[in-house]
Specification:
By secondary structure, the protein is mostly helical. It has 9 helices and no strands. The longest helix has 16 residues.
Length: about 180
Amino acid sequence: GVVCPGMIDTAREYADMASHITNYADGAYGGVFAAALASAAFAESDIGALIQAALATIPAGCDYAGAVRDVVEWHRQNPGDWKAARGKIKAKWQDERGHRQESAVLNGAAVVMALLYSGGDFDTAIRIAAMAGWDTDCNAGNAAAIVGTFQGLQPGWDKYRKPINDFLVVSGVLGTVNI
């Protein structure tokens, strides 16, 4: 998504190819959806429009799309209680439908929940995505990347940036090529 800013169709195409190397079905659709969200965030700041644009890139009948649509509807019905939405995600998509803890469906639902219930607030999006308790690192990272992209760099975010002092660690399979 960040490689194709504002070019959702190109982001979808690249993500579809990359996602099918390691995943299939909802796992691959999750990669496509996340890439589309990230790409769209460069051109759009309305969270609902971002979600709808990303939904258009995956099959409407897949579980991933169904979970996203459910979260959108649960937010519409009760916009002030993300924990209730989290409970509904768990009940329907984990307990009833059998998606495992690390499932792309649960992760996608958590990211969408964080985006919607945060109202686009960076700190709140991170907290909700992490506190949902599923794949906390990637969900918080995805929610933060999407909100951060459509908001642009904000002065209050120095609390996240300064402690790492722009330090970057890149690791690979071979320890000798780690930077």
